[in-house]
Structures are given as C-alpha cells and as structure tokens.
Amino acid sequence: MRRIMMMVFRLFFKAPYYIGRIWWCGRSDKASLEDGYRWCQYSTRKANQAGKVTIDCRGTENLPKENGFIMFPNHQGMFDMLAFLETCPRPFSFVIKKEASKIILLKQVIEATRSLSIDRKDLRQSMKIIQTMTEEVRHGRNFLIFAEGTRSREGNKILDFKAGSFKSAVKAKCPIVPCALIDSFKPFDEKSVKPVTVKIRYLCPLYYEEYKDMTTVEIASEVRRRIGTAIEKESNPQISASTINKA
C-alpha cells in the first residue's frame, strides 16, 4: 500500500492525463485495442518508475510469431498485471475475477484492453466467458489468465493450477505460453518502499500438436511444472536451463 501511495504522489499531476487517455480508449469507437494497450503500457512504465520497481524480463522471443495465444502465469498479487503490461510487446486482454473488475483504475484498464471479467460463482456466465475467449483467440486476440484462480500468499510458492482454465486454449487449439513471475508480491505486499526488482520469464510455448492428446488436468500439471522449474532455477542458477522446457 505504501508503494501505491508513493506512485500516486509522484505522478499526482500526470496521473489524471494518463487515466483520461485510458478511459477514452475504453469508451471511444475510434480507439483500437492497440491504442488502449499502448496507453496502458506507457502509464504502467511511468507508474513502475515512480514506484522504484524494476522489471527483469527475459524470454519475449519465445512468444509465438503469430497472434492468437494464451499466457498462463503464476499469480502472486496485485502487481502481476503491471509486470505484464510493462514487458509484453504484443497487445493482450486478460480474464479477471468479477470482484476486482470494479476497482477504480483497474476498471478503466479492463475496458481499454477489451478484457473480460468472470464470475466464478456463476457457472453459466463462466462458460460464456470461456466461449468468448475461445472465439477471440481464434480471431487472433491474445489473452492472459491466472490458472491458480487466486493469488498465492506464500511468496514464490505456486498453488495448484485449475484444469478448467485451459479449456479455451484446447478449444481454440492455440499456443499455450507458460510465464513465471518471481518476487512479484514484493512491490505491493511488503511495507518497504525501497527499490525492488520483479522477474518475469516468458517460457517456451506448448503448441497444439504437443498437448492435443493430453487432458486439461495433464496440461495444467505440465504448465505448472515448467513455471515451478523456472522459479527454482532463479533461486539455483546451477539448474540447467534446458530443464525448464523438458517434456
């Protein structure tokens, strides 16, 4: 919370302009997804700079050459989305729980990036969102979804991945991109406002040919394994990089 306050204070005079541009991109028919994403990314970089947060990003070259993929990262906290908005070179939308979709600023970002909110208590609405995302991915949109369903409150420890999160990918037959977040909980969960570094690793994707004979449970387990190995590798550099993408 202290770091959020510092971001707001240091951007006090510029924030209204950034928010206004993002709001316009979410409401205007003249603004494209690319326009909205560009302003969200620009504002995020300014906010992270104001908050003394450095993003150590690697692996963007692993992103599929063509659009129409889904990223599946581990979930550590509120800062996770800022890490992706700063570093992902390709516009993407995300799926967020309904409870968070009404938070000020986040609501405007959701609209500007054409993102979707899901009500986990409403099975029918959840299935509609899955179908919508499937169709959008087939038409070349990129998405991000947190397969844990909720954030881990134990630092870099990963929770179980929910198999249902991968239904859209299977139906769309699209590339699945595992993404590892390391120390993403620190900027907003810790009380310190000292400079902090968050690591993000875009790992090699699983293409449909690789997972077409797997169940969603098996896919979830494999994606979780790859992310876990990447996080462990950051803690123990002696682990071979090739282990991360070993089938």
Short description:
The chain is α/β, with parallel strands linked by helices and 247 residues long. 43% of the residues lie in helices and 14% in strands. The protein is globular and about 55 Å long.
Q: Secondary-structure blueprint of this entry?
A:
Elements: H1 2-10, H2 15-27, H3 33-50, E1 53-58, E2 70-73, H4 80-87, E3 93-97, H5 106-112, E4 116-118, H6 123-138, E5 143-144, H7 167-172, E6 176-182, H8 186-189, E7 196-202, H9 208-211, H10 216-235
Parallel strand pairs: 1-7, 2-5, 2-6, 3-4, 3-5
Antiparallel strand pairs: 6-7
Helix pairs in contact: 1-3, 2-3, 2-5, 3-4
Features:
247 residues, alpha/beta, Glycerol-3-phosphate (1)-acyltransferase, 7 strands, globular
What does this structure look like?
The protein is built from 10 helices and 7 strands. By secondary structure, the chain is of the alpha/beta class. It has a single domain, classed as Glycerol-3-phosphate (1)-acyltransferase (3-Layer(aba) Sandwich), CATH 3.40.1130.10. It has a 7-stranded mixed β-sheet with strand order 1-7-6-2-5-3-4, with helices on both faces. Helix 5 (106-112) links the parallel strand 3 and strand 4 (116-118). Helix 1 crosses helix 3 (33-50), helix 2 (15-27) crosses helix 5 (106-112) and helix 3 crosses helix 4 (80-87). The mean pLDDT is 90.
